[in-house]
Amino acid sequence: MRIRGAQAKTIPQQNSAFEVLGGIEKRWASYQPWLKTIGYSLRRRYQPGWKASWLTSGIPERESEDSLVLNFRALVLDAIRDSDGRRVALKLVPTRTKELPIWQYLNSPERASDPRNHTVPLLAVHPLPDTDEHVLAVMPLLLYYDTLRFETLGELLSCLYHLVQGLAFLHEHNIAHLDMCDQNTMLDPGSGQTGLFPKGFHPVRALCYVPNPKSPRVASNDPHSCRTLAQVNYYIIDFGESVQFESFEAREYITGATGHDLDVPEFATNDPYDPFPLDIRATGDMLHTAFFKPSRGYQGLEFLKPIITEMQRDDPKERPSAMDVLSKVHSLLEEQTLTSLRTPLRGIQEDLGIDKDDARKHIYEARVKRYHPIQPPIPGLKTEEVEPMTLIAKILGRLRLLF
């Protein structure tokens, strides 16, 4: 499920564009009665007979839950699984592509149980009642991996490791993703008091939630937790452009531009290219933007530039494999101390949404709870053990939070 809090689309009160369903929304709403029979419920906006709540509630449109629309063309929509109340995402998957077979292959019991596999879980598949051109796939409700800023170096390096590990797993199984980008890199924030958003989050505007289910009003879900305490998981989604080969020996060059990252040397000509180095380049471009672009990046990450620069080399044959990148990141992690991993990050631009006071509180709480700054844990990683804090250290830490 592709969610980014800043991309929720609302409009001024005088504009009525969201008073009616638009685009594919009408299709989703038409499916609600059928979805109910197979155990899923959509939000109020997509229920039969829906009327815009802000027309009569007195709540401004921008504060009304049912004004929040992911995208008028979205093939993905959030829902509730009625059997257990779990929040899920529903996706209309074209049957003409290899997306579903690849997704199912990666979700086989053997592969799904492999901790190196960061493919989004496939919870269920349902044939649609009105067409065989798509099927309905059910997956967990996820957020973009950068919905909240990284607070510590350990959080950032953990994310880097697990995403590269997921790509290496795909390549090990002779699958080239062909659309590695921000939009397809996700995190599971967890749920309840132990999740990243203890109050919950809205599927479209992640930094808000609905305090009262009987009211459409949304409110800020501050305060948030952090990735270390919530112990989030990272996933790769969307295999609509992907290719899979039967074996390493059966790999072939392919043709045609694909994916979000079109500014790569392979697409400068019509010549066939190896799809696997293309994944490396696209991932390197994504990471370079996330870590070093002034409007998004962080200070103190110069030690990562050699690895990412290698991934961005123009000559595909000079780019490292995903396993090579993973090995280098693993080595970098083992060089870090607990102190360095707990280092609070600062944006290249100081006002980039990292709350220093919250970060200090979270770092202190993680130390008290003896949480390692690398979460989720990486099996086999040789790092310092987290020792219990002494009473004096706890008192001093608490005092530092006050001043």
TrEMBL record:
<dbReference type="GO" id="GO:0004672">
    <property type="term" value="F:protein kinase activity"/>
</dbReference>
<dbReference type="GO" id="GO:0005524">
    <property type="term" value="F:ATP binding"/>
</dbReference>
<dbReference type="InterPro" id="IPR000719">
    <property type="entry name" value="Prot_kinase_dom"/>
</dbReference>
<feature type="domain" description="Protein kinase">
    <location>
        <begin position="62"/>
        <end position="333"/>
    </location>
</feature>
<dbReference type="InterPro" id="IPR011009">
    <property type="entry name" value="Kinase-like_dom_sf"/>
</dbReference>
<protein>
    <recommendedName>
        <fullName>Protein kinase domain-containing protein</fullName>
    </recommendedName>
</protein>
